[in-house]
Amino acid sequence: MGERVTKADRQVIAALQRQLTRDEVLLTNVRITDPTEGDVEIDVIVFFPDLGAAVIETKGGLVQFNDGEWTTSRGNYSRKIHPVAQARKGKHALRRYLDRQPEWVAPLLRSQWFVAMPQTDVVGDMGPEGRREHLIGQGDLDTIREQLRRELESTLLADEIPAHGWQHDALTLLLRSGATQPTRTRARPNWVLPSAVGFAVLAAFVGVWVFMQGTPPDSGIVESEPAAIVPSGDCHPNYEPCLPIVDDLDCPDIRVAVQVTGDDPYRLDRDGNGVGCESYL
């Protein structure tokens, strides 16, 4: 799916851009085909060279946990979501993918999962699995880097601190596989990995931020020209306004925001808030 990042994604990415330091790597919209979970999409990954990887699932709208169920709502529309399960899948898919590669000689990557809800005030645990330290709410964005690092430093993690240079190997393997698909966040040409990687071309990969200076660049988000497709024939019952019934659609094909009124077979509502392609609002 060649989707753009959502509004919730952009809020999390912007907060990280302001805080990440030299040599810390931010990846967005990473896609991994996992033998256990199938196709797994990871909204945000942060590589901390001295600690490991933080895997973040983002959810927009007002996120709540009641009677054993997670929901997100906007206005009068509400739908069930599964953010903790998605975040855990992302973490384990990343670890398994790297471990399957012959070039990866390190142990399983030390990592932790997080759920970011930048439009929700989080005040405590959300259910037995949603521990507060793994939840990033609206009020946590200004200290998001500190929170990620604190949990990766935790002695509760059994995996050892990775050896120096692991992030170069991990990023090389992900880029080689095409796991980092294009998004709307673009790295400037002078923001590249250290020369030891031999990858100046990485700066051209959309969706990868590599901070080699003290101050991160702006988001570089590019707006697409308005040219929404005009459906002909029957309309899909799960979307408003009308979308055609086809094998697949991407947000760049549609170029309008849509309301998801049932299942989401086109996977347009990545943050599960009931609005698909909301970056076109």
Provide a brief overview of the structure.
This protein has helices spanning 7-19, 83-100, 144-152, 166-177, 251-254; strands at residues 25-34, 38-48, 52-58, 62-66, 69-74, 77-81, 111-117, 135-137, 208-210, 239-240, 258-260, 275-276.
Helix/strand structural class: alpha+beta
The mean pLDDT is 79
Q: Spans of 5+ residues with little confidence (pLDDT < 50)? A: 181-232
Estimate the helix proportion, in percent. Answer: 10-25%
Major β-sheet profile: 6 strands, mixed
Can you give a write-up of this model?
By secondary structure, the chain is of the alpha+beta class. It has two domains: 7-210, no CATH class; 223-281, no CATH class. The protein has five helices and twelve strands. It has helices spanning 7-19, 83-100, 144-152, 166-177, 251-254; strands spanning 25-34, 38-48, 52-58, 62-66, 69-74, 77-81, 111-117, 135-137, 208-210, 239-240, 258-260, 275-276. The protein has a six-stranded mixed sheet with strand order 8-7-3-2-1-9, sandwiched between helices. The longest helix has 18 residues, at 83-100. It is globular and about 55 Å long. The two termini are 19 Å apart.
